[in-house]
Amino acid sequence: ESVPRLREVPRLPPDTTRESFDRAIVELRDSLGAENVVLNDKPLEDGWYIEHPNTHDAFHIVDQEELVCSAVVYPESTAEVQSIVKWANKHMIPIYPISMGRNVGYGGSAPRVPGSVVIDLGKRMNKILKIDAENASCVVEPGVSYFALYEEIQRRKLPLWIDTPDLGGGSVLGNATDRGVGYTPYGDHFANHCGMEVVLPNGELLRTGMGAMPGKNGADNPTWQSFQPAYGPYSDGIFSQSNFGIVCQMGFWLMPETGHQSYMITFPHDNDFANIVEIIRPLAQQRILGNIPQLRHVIQELSVTGLPKSHWFPGPGRVPRDVVRKHASSLPCGDCAWVFYGTQYGDPASIKTQLDMIKSAFSKIHGSRFFLPSDLPPDHYIHSRAAVCSGVPVLRELDWLNWVPNAAHLFFSPITPTRGEDAKIVHDINVRLHKKYGFDLFPTLCVAGREMHYIANIIYDRSSQDEKRRATALMRDLITEAAKEGYGEYRTHLLFADQVAGTYNWNNNALMRFNETLKDALDPNGILAPGRNGIWPKNFRGKGWQL
Amino acid sequence: ESVPRLREVPRLPPDTTRESFDRAIVELRDSLGAENVVLNDKPLEDGWYIEHPNTHDAFHIVDQEELVCSAVVYPESTAEVQSIVKWANKHMIPIYPISMGRNVGYGGSAPRVPGSVVIDLGKRMNKILKIDAENASCVVEPGVSYFALYEEIQRRKLPLWIDTPDLGGGSVLGNATDRGVGYTPYGDHFANHCGMEVVLPNGELLRTGMGAMPGKNGADNPTWQSFQPAYGPYSDGIFSQSNFGIVCQMGFWLMPETGHQSYMITFPHDNDFANIVEIIRPLAQQRILGNIPQLRHVIQELSVTGLPKSHWFPGPGRVPRDVVRKHASSLPCGDCAWVFYGTQYGDPASIKTQLDMIKSAFSKIHGSRFFLPSDLPPDHYIHSRAAVCSGVPVLRELDWLNWVPNAAHLFFSPITPTRGEDAKIVHDINVRLHKKYGFDLFPTLCVAGREMHYIANIIYDRSSQDEKRRATALMRDLITEAAKEGYGEYRTHLLFADQVAGTYNWNNNALMRFNETLKDALDPNGILAPGRNGIWPKNFRGKGWQL
Ligand SMILES: Cc1cc2nc3c(=O)[nH]c(=O)nc-3n(C[C@H](O)[C@H](O)[C@H](O)COP(=O)(O)OP(=O)(O)OC[C@H]3O[C@@H](n4cnc5c(N)ncnc54)[C@H](O)[C@@H]3O)c2cc1C
Ligand SMILES: Cc1cc2nc3c(=O)[nH]c(=O)nc-3n(C[C@H](O)[C@H](O)[C@H](O)COP(=O)(O)OP(=O)(O)OC[C@H]3O[C@@H](n4cnc5c(N)ncnc54)[C@H](O)[C@@H]3O)c2cc1C
Does residue B535 form part of some domain? Predict the structure, then answer.
């Protein structure tokens, strides 16, 4: 849908006059080429996942025109990124880097400060710089998607897997920088990166890890993608979920291909939840579970078919539990409450041994049922999970988007220990507050041996002011109530960054003071992504920017 | 041996008069109790591993009196650490924190800047604060040794393993902070930590990870030892191998106990080396090798017996290769060149499958021989490796210390890709330079799937000025020549920190400028461990401190 702009365009950066903005843009165009600096002055189009906008948040939860940039720039090289950063420092214009901008549910490609200049790195910096089959690693630029990396590996016929999130259209580098997750044994994307090239907020260029040592005759260091921390402070972590640098290259480890077997286990009762978590913990800690399995509520078996809510339930409001039950009964999963998707890895004999242990462990829950993909129809969702869990990027998860008209996603993503008791507290808060605000609860739990990501997917109609207001209120309450019990989010939408950062306030906000100290040292002019992850540079602090 | 001090005692901090130093010490004693502030004014004793000094580097490679502190303080609590840091800022006296000070081969407990006040954290802050059997984790203070943690777990009869370095007397927290390694699947100590409590150089107290969110009713956060990065910049890494903070508590993951089987494989020829590395790589990448195995040269089979060099070879200088050969022939390993120590984990069936694959892979090297511990005599070194590789701390590795009289260790620790070609370049440099400077070459290679730590243990007689000089020259040459080929160290002795840091000089020392920016922001007075890892605060820069 294309909506005419109501406000003056383009939206100016804060404290910038139109004249000085125009002058700055002329200068930028001179240096990058006019076609690579595009003003955001046309109607905003939400598009869809594949044709997503880089002008604003396609999944807007405030006014569509609220979180907009003033312009988008398309650098071609690291050197051009450096010159954009220097330009921003000169003109004191905030810049906001994105790799591909498919951060749907967390802000898309919108900048936190309206009127910032978005640096769309991915459009022209999209090269796979290296695939090292011996070292099982690669180096990519920001514009390399999971699909692109996957296809190149297939083309070269290498026995390597990538690890992909549920949707394969994102940026390998961008997702890792935001500490996203996937589902093979290499699912912790940031933990499986090795080496970065980063433009600092002052325009300087840094290589982290072994990349900080020149290779022979000026080559890249031969160990750059082999060893993460190198010598001295290991600083890569501070470039994730931060506004301390612009990552222009990043190395990743690739997994040697192996055998795999996905499966699904169903559990009959809503209150089996805590027991399921208790059974997963030792299996995961002992690495019998080979990857990060997902646990979902049965309502998701309805939504992943791609059929809208209206198909299942014509009424307004939430789908009643007994309606879900009735429909589930006629789906392959049957009348159940929880659905567990796992995958085992290795040779057939080890997979068999593992599956025997897993079946026996879960059999303690009365009424649990075990399915292999071959037990399920060819259009069942499990085949898409099996793909993702063996490193094949898919788009199937997009089917969720059909649940309501004009559907948009907003993720509530707290972490709990993998312990029934803790998980239940967070789940109960979700149940209660989703009910209060009238949203179906879609929890996807990515369960590791010690912690689980509890991802609640709030799906709302972005054409409805009322739904947006309720979705926002639900998020705010969820964050507050979880924090009261000691549970915090690992990631959040731009607009809730301040609130979430504010819950990490031990010792009178020691962490935020520390982050601000680093920010001010690295970005004295406060030009790089102000407000991202709740970190405001000193020129923005105390001026009402926090939400 | 106790040597009378030749210089004035205690050695004063730089730019500090005796009067102001004395006044500062009086103040410190008032606040901590006189018995907890001890001047370093008595004769220096090198002691031995268990009774190691905290006054200087017991394995001195310069004059024993060179790397000395002015005083040692013993805080009892984090609050006392904070007050020491504030005291240091007030008096501009450099402080140097150690956990247990058994960093032998890398500087022991010596401060980089002579006359610094050493904070010996471990003596009184030695509590195991928590062992969570469900979460398989613990929280420790700096003074908890591998032995102490191991014993407490045995006492509580928990089915958990610790991971220990070759020597069990070190600090769990201190070793991890220096990014040390062990040999179970949890061998990367820093990667297996979860959450820190850190006193910053300005005296502020920070909790990293989920610890930055208060738990319910002021308790510790329930997810602190479950999830590493939490929300926002993941900053733990910059507190490792740095001088940006004093770690007062640290969480660690413990491994669920499992079956295990150690073994030894010998290879006949010196030039099998590159092939061995090539065979290890895929085995390690595919996680068929369950831990970080060690590859050693056959000469180490002689030294780990604990018998001195003179027992094997009465002559001066290096033990000739044919003398090693002759003795090896009568040892269990036989006449071979390389010895590989591995361990497999899991149930007996999987261990058998793994071992079959490993034997078949290595059988490609003609003349390789496979041994189980049961094939070897009860006093063979393999039994100590089997202990270490199943989480049991030992002291056996100390036997090396008998090689020469007054033996001291100095480690040269470059990283190479796990690739025969790269490993061979570094090995050849070692062979050539050890020969040039007249030292036996003792390489221990910790080989992972993508990188290997090549640890060369230079053993010298610390009573010989000539050996010290040669050991130093050997180190300097090794660092320079390896760097020329693009290989860098992961860790080094205090005195070579500047040189090693200087090799990570890509883009005109961008990394060091970045580290200095952080240092100046966090430690404006430059009081915390100046010079550690080559990072000098601004008040020390350009004053000739770099070596
Ligand atoms: C149905 C559905 C399923 C999803 N499943 C998953 C999932 O399984 N796992 C998962 O992790 N996410 C998931 N997401 C969320 C999101 O779509 C992905 O994380 C996606 O990969 C992020 O977008 P991107 O890769 O294009 O990153 P970008 O949008 O390019 O980057 C994300 C953010 O990181 C920062 N950033 C990016 N690049 C740089 C850079 N070079 N330098 C500095 N900062 C940078 C920016 O702040 C940017 O906003 C899902 C979303 C939906 C709607
Ligand atoms: C024969 C032999 C075998 C060895 N094998 C191994 C091995 O297998 N693996 C291995 O890793 N090492 C090995 N070492 C090296 C060394 O002995 C160990 O690493 C040892 O654990 C380090 O001493 P420590 O634990 O007492 O740490 P400490 O000496 O207490 O700490 C090491 C350094 O870290 C810093 N530090 C410590 N605590 C803090 C803190 N709380 N806050 C801020 N900074 C801090 C200080 O700079 C300190 O000098 C070996 C040494 C020898 C001689």
Answer: no
Q: Are strands B128-132 and B205-207 parallel, antiparallel or unpaired?
A: unpaired
Polymer length in residues for chain A:
547
CA distance A463 to B89: 58
User: Measured from the CB, is residue B409 less than 6 Å from ligand 2?
Assistant: yes
* Count of C-beta atoms within a 10 Å radius of residue A165: 20
B109, B57 contact by CB (below 8 A): yes
Give the residue carrying structure tokens 């159940």.
Answer: A336
Do residues B275 and B380 share a domain? yes
For each successive 10 residues of chain A (547 residues), what is the average pLDDT?
79 96 98 97 90 91 92 98 98 98 92 97 98 98 98 98 96 98 96 98 98 96 97 98 98 98 97 97 94 95 94 94 97 97 94 95 97 96 96 91 92 98 98 98 96 96 95 98 98 97 98 98 98 97 94
Q: Which of A203, A229, A253 is the last residue of a domain?
A: A253
How are the residues of chain B apportioned to helix, strand and coil, as percentages rounded to the nearest 5? Answer: 35, 20, 45
Mean pLDDT of chain B: 96
In-domain check, residue B544: no
| Residue-wise pLDDT tens digits, B493-504 | 999 999 999 999
Q: Which residues line ligand 1 (CB under 6 A)?
A: A 97-105, 107, 109, 121, 142, 165-167, 170-171, 173-175, 177-178, 180-181, 246-247, 397, 400, 409, 532
- Whose atoms come closest to the Cα of A247: which ligand? 1
* CATH, residue B290: 3.40.462.10
Give the nearest chain B residue to A199 (CA atoms). B510
The last residue of one of the domains, among B87, B120, B153, is B120
Give the domain CATH number at B105. Answer: 3.30.43.10
Please check whether residues A413 and A314 belong to one and the same domain.
yes
Same domain for B105 and B141: no
Tens-digit pLDDT profile for residues B37-51: 999 999 899 988 888
Give the domain range for residue A469.
260-491
CA–centroid distance, residue A180 to ligand 1 (Å): 7
Calculated CA dihedral for residues A13, A16, A17, A19, nearest 10 degrees: -90
Which residue has tokens 């209120």?
A473
Q: Which helix (H) or strand (E) holds A177?
A: helix A172-177
Which residues on chain B are in Cβ contact (under 8 Å) with A487?
213, 222-223
Is residue B492 within 8 angstroms of chain A, CB to CB? yes
- Are B336 and B419 within one domain? yes
A135 and B419 in contact by Cβ < 8 A?
yes
Is residue B224 situated within a structural domain?
yes
